[in-house]
Design a protein that fits this description.
It is built from 27 helices and 18 strands. Strand 5 (108-111) and strand 6 form a beta hairpin. The protein has 729 residues and is of the alpha+beta class. The protein has five domains: 6-67 and 125-214, ACT domain (Alpha-Beta Plaits), CATH 3.30.70.260; 71-121, no CATH class; 221-339, no CATH class; 346-578; 582-728, Isoleucyl-tRNA Synthetase, Domain 1 (Orthogonal Bundle).
């Protein structure tokens, strides 16, 4: 480093093994606060790196300015008429301004009608800023279930063991002078707990990184991930299998190891009769193992990732992991045997003992039966083989949907679902298959909770989709009626996620539905079932006027409108997940009541996307803008029947109408699975629009002709707004 005013800052916080789920949040918080401190002191820097292992959090800041020069700033004070007395002296307002900013009267001057002062702000050194900020940042890091240790008051995820904090520059190495809970910052770090636990002196980033490797620590998280994947694949290949990787599990395993060492393990093949999803849940979610499949089927092999690569420990680790998984599998095996003593139909009789958000699960299933029956009736006219999301063998069969609906919640009373709640639905599908139900019913039961989380795929079969829509909408309506509406970050019933899943199912399923009508229907059947509920106590008013009042438990009058508004708020987000042009999404959703014609809005996105690629798109937007500027004060015209072509003078009006009318696909587009309009046909209107406005006087002297021309413009505006709001593009 040639510049003596530039240095690199290294910070490492050593601790007892940190919980994997908290490492990223803690590391990001400390980084954010650290940079805030530097930014507020106007200390410049370039590259910022961060890495984490279970025993250490590390940050480095390159090209850090070590000293900031003093700078002179001009401060604006009160107006001259307030700050200056009649005799020319300073008023109390001026003197107060000087006192507030630690200024001498001699530094004050009047300029441009205001009081000003020049002030020198002394530059701070990076060293002093960091020494002041770091104890505060490290002592006040927020987190869940933090702990104290020894006799101190500082809370952290786990007890701190060491702090490395130094600045390396052309001047040499400078250790920062601060401490946290009596733990003094130094220039010492430590290697892997088993492979190289000795302390070592740190002199630079490169030396720190290489020394950690020598002492068994892979600091880089991507390097640890690569090691896990490559070694796991080799182990799986040795038994002619493939590893079932989970991104979430990999991210977790990376954060619980400093030197990951995959180990091939095996369990008794007798456990393979337990459903695959149960075995995988135990291995992945409970034990952090990587399952192995052979020829597409789950095998008895799995991989445990150890943090101890020493050959002497390998057999003990392998044996221990093979033993610890057996009790979990035996429990699952026992649960399956017990569950199979009752059929799913028998279990539906027990749903009256299980509570839903309001009422019982038995009552909820009866509502789902009504909702899915309506969905079948609504979809019947449009659902056919042209639907791009329809599976070849899938049929919209009312009996199949009804049978799957009546059984979809039956597994909630099983032992397996009680133990593995995340497998609800999947367990029901497995038991339905064992009982000999049709593939359509089995699949619908299995997938009706989908999508379960962000990034999950919606249900694929039509029966699964309809039950998923009904289930999620029923939950949303009940919650809104009870007043349990998401607010800010509070969403205890995950209604946003359920709304997203509902809308993804409809959109990706290309389902031609009127969701406003469906919401109204669900509100109606719930109101008929629940009524106003019990009287409950709520607080009303503020201060001295605050009092308890008795109100009905459920509120139905505005429920439908609130649910529709809530779903509309989620719609733009859901559209944007798979439709990347945010401006087009806004444009096609700008028209009110998108849920009355959601398929049409979906198709119009693709229409506008193609249109936007055309080189003369800007000319088209300019032409449409001319129309909307005239039409915005006019009453909308929805049909060309309001236009009298006998009142046309010349060809300009006639040509515009003839080219706009074919773009009026209002009804037909909502029932089509493909965009009807082409960019070519839409762009044909550019020249006629411009010729019309260049050659035709809309506000003609003849009242009838003027009215007719305004109707033509208003109709054209309506047609284009059916495509999208081009003012947003």
């Amino acid at each position: 480093m040639a510049d003596k005013n530039i240095g690199n800052f290294l910070l490492e916080l050593g601790a007892e093994e940190l919980p994997a789920g908290q490492i990223s949040n803690i590391s990001n918080h400390i980084k954010t606060e650290l940079l805030k401190a530097l930014d507020s002191a106007e200390i410049s820097y370039k590259e910022v790196k961060q890495s984490s292992t279970p025993r250490r959090l590390f940050w480095s800041i390159n090209d850090l300015s070590l000293e900031v020069e003093d700078k002179e700033v001009e401060i604006k004070g009160p107006p001259e008429k307030i700050a200056k007395a009649e005799d020319g002296s300073f008023t109390q307002a001026a003197l107060g301004f000087a006192k507030k900013n630690n200024l001498e009267e001699s530094a004050l001057e009047f300029k441009d009608g205001y009081l000003y002062a020049k002030q020198t702000i002394k530059g701070q050194s990076a060293e002093s800023v960091l020494e002041t900020a770091l104890p505060v940042i490290l002592s006040n890091t927020p987190g869940v279930r933090f702990m104290r240790w020894a006799d101190g008051e500082v809370k952290f995820a786990r007890p701190m063991q060491w702090i490395l904090a130094l600045i390396v520059s052309a001047k040499g190495k400078k250790v920062l002078n601060f401490n946290v809970e009596g733990l003094k910052a130094g220039s010492i770090s430590y290697g892997h707990r088993f492979l190289g636990p000795e302390a070592f002196e740190v002199t630079s980033y490169d030396q720190y990184y290489s020394q950690l490797e020598k002492q068994g620590v892979f600091l880089d998280q991507e390097a640890r991930k690569k090691k896990i994947i490559e070694e796991s694949k080799k182990l799986a290949a040795s038994v002619k299998g493939e590893v079932i990787f989970s991104d979430d599990l990999l991210d977790e395993v990376i954060l619980i190891t400093e030197n990951p060492s995959p180990i091939l393990c095996e369990f008794d093949t007798a456990f393979l009769k337990v459903p695959d999803c149960v075995l995988q849940t135990v291995m992945i979610n409970h034990q952090r193992y990587l399952p192995i499949q052979i020829n597409g089927k789950l095998s008895q092999y799995f991989i445990a990732v150890s943090n101890n690569p020493l050959p002497a420990a390998r057999e003990n680790i392998k044996s221990g992991n093979e033993k610890v998984i057996v009790p979990r599998f035996k429990d699952a095996e026992f649960f399956v045997e017990e569950d199979m003593k009752k059929t799913l139909k028998q279990r539906t009789l027990e749903l009256s003992r299980l509570n839903s958000i309001k009422g019982t699960m038995e009552a909820k299933v009866k509502r789902l039966e009504k909702i899915t029956a309506k969905l079948v009736a609504d979809l019947k006219p449009s659902y056919n083989d042209k639907n791009p999301a329809k599976l070849k063998e899938d049929k919209l069969d009312a009996d199949t949907v009804k049978e799957a609906t009546l059984l979809c919640k039956a597994d909630l009373g099983t032992n397996l679902v009680f133990e593995f709640t995340e497998l609800q639905g999947e367990i029901g599908g497995i038991y339905a298959e064992k009982e000999g139900y049709s593939k359509a019913v089995v699949t619908a039961i299995s997938e009706h909770y989908k999508p379960r989380f962000a990034g999950d795929e919606p249900a694929k079969t039509i029966a699964g989709k309809l039950i998923a829509i009904a289930d999620k909408l029923d939950n949303i309506v009940t919650s809104f009626a009870l007043g349990k509406i998401p607010s800010g970050s509070a969403d205890p019933f995950a209604l946003r996620r359920q709304a997203n899943g509902l809308l993804e199912t409809v959109l990706h399923g290309h389902m031609i539905l009127n969701l406003e009508d469906l919401v109204t229907y669900v509100v109606k059947i719930q109101e008929e079932e629940f009524g106003s509920g019990e009287m409950i106590t709520k607080m009303k008013g503020r201060g001295e006027k605050r009092q308890e009042i008795q109100v009905p438990e459920l509120e139905w009058d505005s429920c439908a409108n609130k649910v529709i508004e809530f779903l509309e708020q989620r719609l733009e987000f859901v559209f944007s997940i798979s439709h990347k042009d945010a401006n087009i999404v806004k444009a096609i959703l700008a028209k009110p009541h998108p849920f009355q014609e959601l398929n049409k809005r979906h198709m119009m996105y693709h229409t506008v996307l193609d249109l936007k690629q055309e080189k003369n798109f800007a000319d088209f937007v300019a032409a449409v803008t001319r129309i909307s500027n005239i039409a915005k004060t006019e009453t909308p015209v929805l049909s060309p029947d309001s236009i009298n072509d006998k009142l046309f003078e010349g060809n300009y009006e006639k040509e515009l109408l003839e080219l706009v009318k074919p773009l009026d696909v209002n009804g037909s587009q909502n029932s089509s699975y493909e965009p009807i309009l082409s960019s070519k046909d839409i762009l044909k209107t550019v020249e006629p629009i411009n010729k019309f406005f260049d050659n035709v006087l809309v506000n003609a002297e003849d009242e009838e002709i003027k009215k007719n021309r305004k109707a033509l413009v208003a109709y054209a505006d309506t047609v284009f707004k059916e495509i999208g709001d081009f003012s947003l593009l």
